[in-house]
Structures are given as structure tokens and as C-alpha cells.
Fold:
Amino acid sequence: MISEKSPLLSAERPLPPRAIALMLLLCVSWGFNQVAVKLALPDIPPLWQGLIRSLGALPVLLLIARFRGTKLFARDGTLRAGLLLGVIFGIEFVMIFRGLALTSASRAVVFLYTAPFFVALGSYRFLGERLRFAQWAGLALSFAGVALAIGVPQADVDANVLWGDILIVGGGALWAATTLTVKATRLRHAPAEKSLIYQVTLSIPILALAALVSGETLTRVPGPLALSLMVYQTVWVVGLTFLLWWVLVKTYSASKLSAFTFITPLFGVVASYFILHDTLTPVFGAAALLVIAGLFLVNRASPAVPVPIDPLLTTTKT
Structure:
């Protein structure tokens, strides 16, 4: 059982085999999540998936908070920041789920994990954190990878796919905005469950309104596969893996753990290829490697680069 330790001690602790095994499990889970959304689309439209996921995750998070003894309604000065956080989170997932309906899962997982790129830029601009040369080089590599993946004409990429790509990148930027909101406000010291509940609760009306405006409807009763995939997204991804990440970050070095998250897009691309039979061209493969290499440089070059405290705001979206 992994327990939370003092953050002063956690920075120097090596990762034991159990922490490494858990991180690999989390990265596989997060990498498969975009594939899960795509597989459920024939039965459940994208925004409905986001809405169902938030509705189902809320009671799971409330139960976990009760079990852990978290005081959700204590006056800690986080309400205003929490409301802002929830609104950004809700709009973020409107963009991500709409984008997933248009682009492939393999492209989505690469573009979504540009979020640390925006976190680094935002921290430099708004939090006054300085970046070293290697980190700027990493940002340049990531930007080049995204530009290559979006900008180079490919036979299986049309205007709809490109629009989906742009929506996913926008979702990654908003993911970064939630991270910066946490780091710049009292939410930084709030329990993980409280930050997650702010986000999930506020996302419910936003996703419901977006589904209504877009005209999405459930035309049939979802089949067993779609329902099982929704349980996976709701209970496992939102309800449990993000909190597992939180415990790991508080117990071990966040910078060491963050290095593992860069294999998440690789798991997502591989899962998309074998399960959804996504086309992987050499150009897209090179672009994905540029993005991953760049983000690795950004997050490994200096301990000053911010690592998100809230698990939902780190490498684990959708």
C-alpha cells in the first residue's frame, strides 16, 4: 500500500518497483482512453459520453472523499478559483470529445499531450518561472511536431480531421489553463478530491448544454460494449487513476514520475493501430516522436518546470 509521505522527503526517493508498475498501469489506462471513446461512438455520441462520465464519476469521487475523510465543504478560500477551474474543465472536454468525433484516436492522443507545452509557456508568462535553453529547445521540437502532423497533406486527412485536431490541441491548451489555475490559487493546497469534484460538477451542465445545442441524441439503448467502456472511463479513469496519480506524486518525486507520462501517447498510438486500425504514416510517426521528445526535454531539463499537483490536471485527461 502506497502512503502519502512528506514532500521534502519524496523528491529524493527512488521509484521502487511497485511505483514503476503503477505508473505503467496508469499510462496504459490513459493511452487507451481515447480508443475507448472512439469504440463507444456508434452507440453514444461524444458529448453524451462526456456527460455520462461526469455524472457517473461524481458519486464515485464523493464516496472516495468520504472514505478518506476529506472535508469538502470547509471554508478554505477555494470557491472562486474552483468555479473558474470547473468552467475551464467543462469547455475543455467539450472540445476534446467533439474533436474525437472528427479525428483519429492516434492523432488525438498525441495532440492532447501537448498540454505540458502550454503549461511551460504559461508558467514562463504568468508565474515568472524561467526556462533553460534545453527547455526552449523542447518547446520548439513539440511545436514542430504539431505543425508537421497538422500541416503536411496526407491522403487520409481532410478538413474535418484537421478541425478535430485543432479542437484537441485547444483542449490541451485548456488542460494547461486548469493546471496554471491550480498552481496560481489556493487550490494548490486543496485535497485532490475537492479539485476533482469542482471540475466534474461544473462540467455536467456545460456538457449537457453543449450536447443540447449540438443536437446530439441517444437513438438507441447502448450495447454491452459501449456500457462497459463508459464504466471504464467513469469509474477507473476519472474515479481512480487520477487519485492514484495524486498519491504517487505526494509520495515520490513528481519529476521522476512525470518522465513516465511521455510513454502515454505511444500506448495510445499503438492501441489505436491494433484496435481501431488507424493508419500510421511515416510523417505522423515522425511528428509524434518530435512531440514526445520535445515534451521530455521540457519536463526533464530543470526541476523548476511546473508539475501539476492536481491529478486530473496532469497527463491524464480523457
Observations:
- The two ends are 26 Å apart (CA to CA).
- Residues 14-313 form one domain.
- Residues 224-251 form the longest helix (28 residues).
